[in-house]
Specification:
single chain, DNA polymerase, domain 1, 6 strands, 40% helix
């Protein structure tokens, strides 16, 4: 196992920020595969493309613009509401109630918010299935980012912290995408990477580091136990909690 070069505890944290997809719910739910299929179908239908070409365009816009939607709006004037309503019309059956997660979130002192490149409606539906919706003070979504400035852009984080009155240096953020955490680290947040590489999804590839990069302070493959350990440590040593043993700073093999 290899330790991160920057260790950081949680005693200073006043706001807990959670990504939604593959973070609040386990990557094994595979909701994003459904969303990707819906995106491909939307593009194919609206641009008279084959599904193969539609998915190639989807991927290209994702990498070039941060989200597929941002590319579709910038280059084609696609209605964001039509797109989001279509792609988030998915089966949420894989998402199961998560009482351990709910209890772990409850034990964290301070504010809890969701920060997602998806829509508020999608976030609310998923959080309701998990049984954690009422744990969050707010959901900051792609609508609040005017659709074309998603994470990981500096504009997205600036708008998020300004509109919700969050002091970055007193916030911790959980996300499955390391490039989102790079921007979060740059503005002073404590960063926790949800390591989803075992699922083999393309957006989680290219992270076979020998050591964790300095913009990732902690990592875990299991959110609820990690949060439980933080809550326990904070309760025992207020203001001086260290990373939960065995899950933070050194999860790589």
């Amino acid at each position: 196992m290899t330790e991160a070069t920057t260790a950081r505890g949680f005693g200073h944290v006043e706001t807990w920020v959670f990504d939604l997809d593959n973070t609040l719910y386990p990557v094994e739910c595979d909701l994003f595969s459904q969303i990707e299929r819906r995106m491909g179908a939307f593009i194919a239908e609206n641009f008279d493309l084959s599904l193969e070409d539609a998915h190639a365009l989807r991927q290209r816009y994702y990498f070039e613009h941060g989200t597929t939607l941002a590319g579709l709006i910038r280059l084609h004037g696609v209605s964001p509401h039509a797109f989001l309503d279509y792609v988030h019309d998915i089966d949420l059956a894989p998402v199961q109630p998560a009482p351990e997660l709910a209890a772990a979130i409850d034990a964290l002192p301070g504010r809890k918010v969701v920060f997602t490149n998806g829509s508020r409606g999608h976030a609310e539906a998923v959080a309701t299935k998990l049984g954690v919706l009422d744990r969050f003070e707010d959901i900051f979504d792609i609508h609040a980012l005017d659709y074309v400035n998603p994470k990981p852009s500096q504009e997205a984080f600036n708008r998020f912290t300004a509109m919700l009155g969050i002091e970055a240096a007193r916030a911790a953020i959980f996300d499955d995408l390391p490039h989102n955490l790079e921007t979060a680290h740059a503005i002073g947040m404590t960063t926790i990477w949800i390591d989803c590489r075992a699922a083999g999804r393309p957006e989680h590839q290219g992270t076979d580091w020998a050591t964790l990069p300095t913009h990732i302070h902690h990592c875990t493959e299991a959110l609820a136990p990690f949060l439980t350990a933080i809550g326990t440590a904070l309760a025992e040593e207020p203001g001086r909690a260290e990373a939960p043993t065995g899950q933070a700073q050194f999860c790589l093999t």
